[in-house]
Description:
The structure holds 2 protein chains of 2 kinds.
Chain A: E1 9-13, E2 25-31, E3 34-41, H1 49-53, H2 61-66, H3 73-88, H4 94-122, H5 127-147, E4 156-157, E5 160-161, H6 169-191, H7 195-201, H8 209-214, H9 220-223, H10 231-234, H11 255-279, H12 298-303, H13 305-316, E6 324-332, E7 335-343, E8 351-355, H14 357-369, H15 374-384, H16 388-392
Antiparallel strand pairs in A: 1-2, 2-3, 4-5, 6-7, 7-8
Chain B: H1 3-13, E1 20-21, E2 29-31, H2 37-46, E3 54-62, E4 70-78, E5 83-91, E6 96-98, H3 108-118, E7 121-123, H4 164-179
Parallel strand pairs in B: 2-5, 6-7
Antiparallel strand pairs in B: 1-2, 3-4, 4-5
Amino acid sequence: xxxxxxxxxxxxxxPQHPSTHGVLRLVLELDGEVIQSVIPTIGYxxxxxxxxAEQKKWQQVIPLVERMDYLGAQSNSLSYALCVxxxxxxxxxxxxxxxxxxxxxxxxxxxxxxxxxxxxxxxxAVSMLFYALRERELxxxxxxxxxxxxxFPSYFRIGGLREDLPRGFxxxxxxxxxxxxxxxxxxxxxxxxxxxxxxxxxxxxxxTEEQALAWGLVGPIAxxxxxxxxxxxxxxxxxxxxxxxxxxxxTEGDVFARYRVRVAEMRQSHRxxxxxxxxxxxxxxxxxxxxxxxxxxxxxxxxxMEALIQHFLIYSQGFTVPAGDAYVPIEGxxxxxxxxxxxxxxxxxxxxxxxxxxxVAIQALPSIVKGGLIADVVAVIxxxxxxxxxxxx
Amino acid sequence: xxxxxxIDTLTPLVPGAEFEAGTSVDFACLYVPVGRLVETCxxxxxxxxxxxxxxxxxxxADYLPRNPRFxxxxxxxxxxxxSKLRVKVRVEDGGSVPTVQQVWPSxxxxxxxxxxxxxxxxxxHTDLRRLxxxxxxxxxxxxxxxxxxxxxTPQTYEPLExxxxxxxxxxxxxxxxxAH
Lengths: 393, 180
């Protein structure tokens, strides 16, 4: 009998594979159906945002950075704005902080809803996507109400917010917050006790706490492995220390644990948002009181010479930021979302660098899926919740 | 924990290394001599009073007219001690830094990105290839002397399978077909 020829097979997955969240390419080396090695290839969505940002004025960078992590757009601009405000030494009024917290939590909900829908769809529960996008649509409507833009609101500005809240904002947010918990129960009813879903996710892609931290996966992935690190608790920003919420954790470290942590996180986000909306008055202050950064109110521009000059200077030259560097992390939907900004004292940033949580997650992907099956790769990618725009920038 | 406290703890652990506290507005910043980087990082990770167990980010900045030109920046996080630290290394043009992959595995891709974007060689890296730019790209885009707008002809490894004549013939045939 002729000797059996045994060798591993190399299979290309992506960049157009529907379950790779955009344009992630994986080169899989397979032994039968068991994965021997994975080589991720990224960069298909590299748009040079960090280089472009160096040519823009400080305030003009906000719409650019929002296009990095496009599902959690406002977490990009929040970390950038907090970082520049740190360099400027600005302190925000309470109302601005509360609005930022509220919108950041709604952004987390919107991002997690897309994750929930796509993750469940990829492993077979197709109808989940329709349910999840139904609620996300309401959040997009709130964005539209606030900023006139659904996906990239650019509502957070250095020095506060772009303008005051619109009429009807409280009604829209309250209507959503009232509706959401029952819908979340509905999602859980579809998935948490679903036998097929659990068989696809339990014990798959296991990561220990030590591994997760060694790979720098601080965020929901590490929390599903037992770490309790959450930037909102460890290094509070925007007054998160005044809110009553807990950090959900799990110890199994598998795909199902990540699912449970993110769903529990959505309940906590709902809790924070409900507290924030009661603290926000319908009208009030929406920017800090610093004439260097914030343009004067329009009625003063029309009546006072100095205000007109200041308005003209801010819109033509922009403002300068003291030389130095700062790194301010926030808890984004995908984990620690930090921005490192270097200023040389002029009206344009010298260097803007995002710390992209998706980039870190894809780096760790080979160590998570090694030894698993091809079908597990899809489940694991879904559970890490990667966004390629965030990864490639 | 401020930079001087970190330096006091580190000095006996890494004998002979000259640390320098950097100015910062957020948390402690430390300049480390490039030759003692790996030793220092290991001490930062393993000393119980420091215990920086997570490397959140590695990046660089190009301060062009200045010499040495680059600064490689490492952001460290200590979850047990609830503290953050920024470690900086000064690198000259054409210079190199040692890899810290064996201390924190998460340094792998960020260090590749530093090579890709700034052309700073990372000594001892297990897989130092371009990461975000195509493999045949020339130059390192994040350098300050790299032009912002350039025109490059698209490069492909293999020529297109359809020749220009065939392409035009196909177009003509389709146009004739659509006319009817």
